[in-house]
Write a structure and sequence with these properties.
The protein is of the alpha+beta class. Helices cover 33% and strands 20% of the residues. Strand 4, helix 3 and strand 5 form a beta-alpha-beta unit. The chain is globular. 24% of the residues are buried.
């Protein structure tokens, strides 16, 4: 039996619920609720780029954050950056993922974006894998590297 997942662009009154959803994914991290709330409010107000998936019981089953703040300096084309997609565990993960990405795709089209860039993560069980991204049309073009900002070496 396939469940229906409805994706919408998040609204400001949903920020607390989105934060609760996020806390479930990062219980062992230093999850700064006020910082996250401020960031979500900016994305929702300025870009309308937070997407949430809900099941028929209205429970959040997935969240996708994105932004579009410029162009690819190499081409001059507008680019949308997916900053994270978080999905509840379960058999419907790819259905939820596809529904969230459909919302993102439609938003990117409305901006006349040329590309969506995403970081395939491995931080926790909720982050979709590189193989999952490939199933929805992404291709690997490089790798993301990161380093903490603690001391310049």
């Amino acid at each position: 039996m396939q469940h229906q997942h409805v994706v919408t662009q998040a609204e400001l009154h949903e920020v607390k619920e989105i934060i609760k959803f996020g806390e479930d994914f990062f219980p062992d991290k230093n999850f700064d609720k006020s910082q996250v709330a401020s960031y979500l409010q900016v994305l929702i107000s300025n870009q309308k780029s937070v997407f949430i998936s809900r099941n028929t019981s209205q429970k959040i089953t997935g969240v996708l954050l994105a932004l579009s703040n410029g162009v690819d300096w190499r081409t001059g084309h507008r680019v949308v950056v997916e900053q994270g997609v978080y999905i509840l565990d379960g058999a419907e993960r790819m259905d939820i993922c596809k529904a969230l990405y459909k919302g993102l795709y439609e938003w990117a089209l409305s901006l006349r974006a040329y590309k969506i860039v995403a970081e395939a993560g491995t931080l926790n069980r909720s982050v979709i894998s590189e193989a999952d991204y490939q199933k929805i049309g992404f291709k690997t073009i490089g790798q993301i590297m990161e380093r903490e900002v603690n001391q310049y070496v």
